[in-house]
Amino acid sequence: MQDKIVVSSFWATVLVIGTLLSPIVTIILNRDFDLVAKRLNNQHERYESYNSRRRELLEQYLVGLVEAERAETPEERKNLKLIEVSYLLIPYLPNYMQETFQRYALEAANRKHDAKSNADFQTVTIFIKELLDPRGR
Fold first, then answer.
1. Domain locations along the chain
2. What is the C-alpha separation between 123 and 41, in angstroms, rounded?
3. Which of 47, 118, 50 has the alpha carbon at shortest distance from 89?
4. Under 8 Å between Cβ of 82 and 74
């Protein structure tokens, strides 16, 4: 009989300890989950902000290219924002594309078109198309 009381009191003690500890364990798990969720949310917001800024600058770059093609007088070409946008775009481009974007912006602003600038144009447009593709980078 005494063995049954000892076993019963053991399980009663386990039940009481479990009842006391379960809210504490739940709070700890929820806090950790909230921290992980907040970190993931912050990463997602930074990623979205980075992509929207990059998209905006690429669109401005393309608009600048069109304005450079339409500029007739040297005064119009001097007021182009293409060079400024190309410099703002540098941090958003991989190292191997930075020089190509800069070179093509200068060629377009100065209206110097040759075989090299045509190759730069192809490279730049393909790269921009890949970046602006929703499934892309």
1. 2-132
2. 35
3. 50
4. no
Per-residue pLDDT of the chain (137 residues; tens, 9 = 90+): 555 666 678 888 888 888 888 888 899 888 989 999 999 999 999 999 998 998 899 889 888 888 888 877 777 777 778 888 888 888 988 888 888 888 888 888 877 777 777 788 888 888 888 888 777 55
Q: Quote the longest CA-to-CA distance of the chain.
A: 108
